[in-house]
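Researcher: Structure for this, please.
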Amino acid sequence: MLRARENMMAPIRNMLNKVGVTEQQWRVLRVLAERGTMDPKDIAQSACLLNPSLTRIMQFLERKELITRHAHPTDRRKMLVDITPGGIDLLRDAAPESNAIFARLEAQYGRDQMDQLLDMLNTLSEVDLS
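Model: Predicted structure, token format:
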């Protein structure tokens, strides 16, 4: 599984290097772009990150003006996070290369096999090995 992941991630890492973000930062931006304003705890869960890692990632993304953080309107103890227009632009600028990577993958393995793989990975992610 590790070899497969590394093989899959190599072209994606090259793309991310070009736009100046890490895999984890990319996942946070994608989650926010897809789901809108979110609580950091929900971002961490959706992006498969630990809370301490997310804190550092959000600090970096905020410095680069790719996200904004603000107080929850009814619960001042909570924070909400939004993607900025700059974050949306970064995702849009990377989209052609990202789409090309996944198109090459699908062309090589076929849509049916890709669907099967995604189904199996989703099932595997729900297995409790404890």
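Researcher: Any notable elements?
Model: The longest strand covers residues 67-71. The radius of gyration is 16 Å.
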